Amino acid sequence: MTSRRIRASRTAGVFPLLVGVTSALALTGAAFYTVEKAGCGDPGQYVRHDSHVELVGGCVDGAKLPHTDPREPSSAGPAGAGGAHNYRP
């Protein structure tokens, strides 16, 4: 009777493991498929200049990004409130 209990508990423990591995494989496959179909032929590269890092190349169109003038005061509030000008890499 003890061997039946052990076998039942092992079987009950294997099923969640198989479900977890299967879902991990499915998510990994979905991630690879998404990256493959992204359609960007030039991944670009980061170039470090004197005081900043710049992305050269890539699929990001700079004309479509919002432009902020660093000379204008931030509308985000105080300096610690978390605006675009508070990012320091």
Strand percentage lies at 5-15%
The average pLDDT value, as a whole number, equals 76
What gyration radius follows from the Cα positions, in whole Å?
25 Å
N-to-C order of helices and strands: HEE
User: What number of structural domains do the residues give?
Assistant: 1
Strand order of the largest sheet: 1-2
Helical fraction: 25-40%
Amino-to-carboxy terminus distance = 64 Å
How many β-strand runs?
2
Number of helices: 1
Decide which structural class fits the backbone.
mainly alpha
Q: Major sheet, described briefly?
A: 2 strands, antiparallel
**Weakly predicted, low-confidence segments:** none
Instruction: State the shape.
Output: elongated
Keywords: Signal
Protein name: Secreted protein
Region (Disordered): 62-89
Organism: Amycolatopsis arida
Please tag this protein with its features.
single chain; 89 residues; mainly alpha; two-stranded antiparallel sheet; 9% strand; elongated
Give the structure's gist in a few sentences:
With 89 residues, the protein is mainly alpha-helical. The protein contains 1 helix and 2 strands, in the order H-E-E. The radius of gyration is 25 Å and the shape is elongated.
Structural features, described:
The protein is mainly α and 89 residues long. It has one domain. 39% of the residues lie in helices and 9% in strands. It has one helix at 2-36; strands at 45-48, 53-56. A two-stranded antiparallel ribbon has the order 1-2. The chain is elongated. The termini are far apart. 0% of the residues are buried. The mean pLDDT is 76.
